Structure formats: C-alpha cells, structure tokens
Amino acid sequence: MKPLFHPRVDDLDLSTILHACADPTRLRLLADINTEPGKTCGTFETELSKSTLSAHFKVLRESGLIRQEPGPGNSRLNWPRTAEVQMRFPDVISAILKSVTR
Amino acid sequence: MKPLFHPRVDDLDLSTILHACADPTRLRLLADINTEPGKTCGTFETELSKSTLSAHFKVLRESGLIRQEPGPGNSRLNWPRTAEVQMRFPDVISAILKSVTR
DNA sequence: CCAAGTGTTCGTGAATTGACGAATACACGA
DNA sequence: TCGTGTATTCGTCAATTCACGAACACTTGG
After folding, report:
1. CA proximity to A53, closest of A18, A26, A16, A20
2. Cβ distance of A88 and B99 shorter than 8 Å
C-alpha cells in the first residue's frame, strides 16, 4: 500500500481544520476514530457509498485531523492526530469532540 | 430598522457553527466582534464589497455566533453570542478564538 | 493464477458557496 | 423633502462541494 500524504504540524491551518469538522458525516467519523483509534475504513456505520466515504477520509487526512497508515491486506488504519493538532490549536479539537452528540 | 432573525440557543447546531467559523473572513470578523463588541458593520477592515460582507454577517448571525441589533441611524451593532453558544457547546468558541492569529 | 475483499480515482451531476455591482430600503440631518 | 450614510436584497457568475457508480489498484487466501 502506498503511504498517503499527511501535512506537518507546522502546516496545519485552522480554517481548513474547521471546514473538515463542519460536515456532519466527517465529524461523526472523526469522533468514531477518536473513540476507537485504529479502525479500518470499512468499519464505520454509514449509508454512504465507498467513494463518498473515501473522499471524506481524504479531507480529514489532508486537514491533519487523522493519520491513515497501511494496515493488513489493502486496508488502512485510521488514527486521530488530536494530540498533534492540539499543539498548534490548543483545546479546539477536544472541545469539539466533547460537544459531539453520540 | 427591522429586527433580524436570531436562532434560539436550543436550536444551535454544531456543524452550522463550525461551518460559519471555517471561512477565514468570517473567523476574522468573529474575532473582531469579540475583541470589540458593539462594532458597526462598516467599521471592519476588509477589501471585500459591502454585499459580500453583509452575506458573511448573515451567516454568522444565522449560525447563532453573533447578535445584530439596530443601532443609531440605519446601522447595526454586532455583539458576540459567545456566552450563549458556550452553554450548548462549552469551550468550542473560546478555544477557536484563542487560536486565531491576529 | 484467480477470486474476493478493501480502498482510491475518475467522470458526472446537482446543489451550495463566495464574490460582485446595481437596485433597494431605511434613518437622520440640513 | 432631499440628500447622505448605512446596510440588505437580488441577479449573476465561477468555483467548490458532496454525492454516486464504474473502473482501477492492490493484497491475500484458496
């Protein structure tokens, strides 16, 4: 599996991050990844098609909110980058995640 | 001056709020309103046209982030609703505002 | 080697966004 | 009442977003 692009902490942008969080689907995904780190892309509850979901993961990853690393088979493991993001923007992500209704 | 629509605290939506914050221009406006509450719409530093600015204020207002009340003449005074928003989504707005680079 | 499983990419289309200028609405002072 | 200042609304336009299915890429098990 090809490794994917991930922005460095220094390159994180607040507006980009907020935009990534602003979509209900992505916010749900992000929350799930934080509750259950290492989940594989196919294990999320959703009605959406695979391609749509893949696009959402891409937005999350490119914003710096998650890390996607090669997993077993052709899968990808999804990890939160919350700790890293907090270094740049303290409390933002944690506050948002706390407000997400399950 | 007509009073404008403002959502009740109970009707605030996290995604809507994050979307409102996700635009750099709006984030700038929001930060300015919080630093200097009661500012009038025309007193913001910007290159944008009146109509564009007005649209941004509308997004902020309808998301619940600011209150726009009639001011002297035909002006509108802009107030933060940060305290109200915090009741629904604790720390979210304050954390975002702290991360805004001046 | 082949089939099954897992994701990504591409092309498409509908809807939304963000920008603008022109027109409009409203309040106030002269 | 007539300008002037302030802000909203409207119509338009280009660009972006979000959704989908089809096609492709890659790994692994049989």
Report:
1. A26
2. yes
What is the spatial distance between Cα B88 and Cα A81, in angstroms, rounded to a whole number?
25
Q: Nearest residue of B to residue A15 by CA position?
A: B22
Answer yes or no: are the C-beta atoms of A93 and A85 closer than 8 Å: yes
Q: Which nucleotide is nearest, taking the CA of residue B73 and each C1'?
A: C27
Q: Whole-structure pTM over 0.70, yes or no?
A: yes
d(CA A30, CA A17): 11
Per-residue pLDDT tens for B15-62? Answer: 999 999 999 999 999 999 999 999 999 999 999 999 999 999 999 999
Q: Give the position of tokens 């954390």.
A: B95
- Separation in Å: C20 C1' and A51 CA: 35
Sheet harboring A76-80: ordered strands across? Answer: A39-40, A76-80, A66-70
Residues of A in contact with B9 (CB under 8 A): none
User: Of B24, B89, B94, which has the smallest distance from its Cβ to A99's Cβ?
Assistant: B89
